[in-house]
Write the structure tokens for this entry.
Amino acid sequence: MFAYNQPLVSPADFDNAMFFAIPVTVYQQNEVIDYGGVIEKHTEHAVLINGNFYFKDLCQFKVRRVSMSK
């Protein structure tokens, strides 16, 4: 489903990463700003990870590792 370092782009990508508890890293201008974790919630404009909101239009979200635990 997901590969290491794969960017999340579509709403379905975010839904699947959240459902399967896939940890993601948050980047801004190609630099890591947060090693992130599991997506708790997302809207059209923002993603909630570990209690912090990140704007989709300012950040990139990439798969940190693939877990097959679910």
Q: What stands out?
A: The first helix runs from residue 11 to 19.
